[in-house]
Amino acid sequence: MIGVFRQKNPGNFFMLFLIGVLLKLSVFFKAAPAIIKETDSFTYQAFAGFLEPIAVFFPVVYALFAFGLMLLQAYLLTVFINNNRLMAKANFLPGIAYILTTSLLPDFNRLSSPLIVSTLFLLIFIILFSAHNDKTTRGDIYNAGLILGLAGLLFPPALIFIVWIYIALATLRPFKLNEWVVVLIGVVTPYYFLAIFLYLADQLHQNYFFNGFTLALRYEKFTAWHAGMLFLILMPLLAGVYYMQAKSGRMLIHVRKAWNLFLSYAAICMVITFVNVGSGIENWVLFLLPAAAIHGYGYYAAELKLYPWIAFWLSVIFIVTSQIFSGLW
Q: What is the pTM of this model?
């Protein structure tokens, strides 16, 4: 099955959709509600509240919205990697890797603020990576900051991602102070307009901007199933990093920079996963997108051709088994 995704053809996206539906059937049947935490921003809570009347008559709306976001992310990630030739041949391996990793546990498949923000992070990556081309304008850099500001309104810890934006600018472009300031202006813009709206509504005294940050490492609810999930995420990740480093000497400069940025993307998201933690591990979905990109590279570059096949079917078996026996779903 994994061999189908080693090539790029029009039917691959349909296969991606079909496998995603089959692996996530349990989510659709359970029709789990959106994840809303006390630390979530009022904008995300308002969005979830907007869907609530629909969910009364169509309970699966949250699961469908989350699945649509994941399909969109898988598609954008795959198209970005193929268009920039980050692998020798175009393929759909990053997309299937993302569908697999998001199917490992139910928290990844429920609508949550980190899942929405994950889409915005990917858009920031795509916009800023064009900065290796001198044609990039300050408008693109401003847009990246603006998207991060919107992400911060949905999930305040997302603002930590500004560290990655500055890493990307330092990696891709010569230092220009005005460009770094433009990022900050973009980030502040959504908050500026929100402040105006609240002022006109005479609600500026309400704390709609920031609910505080809390750091937590949650171990009490971790089970053997969580350990299996970590194994199936981290082992392919390490394999991908290994092959990436082994072949870095033969990469074009922009390709090497892209994969290094994916690594820093994953590292920053790993930090964010421990901020404003809820009762589950939904924050980890932020880490899965860059991890899936690296998984895909490992699948493609593997010298042992049996490795992608083993990784794929081991993940599928784990997903099906956990849905039947774990009690988490």
A: 0.92
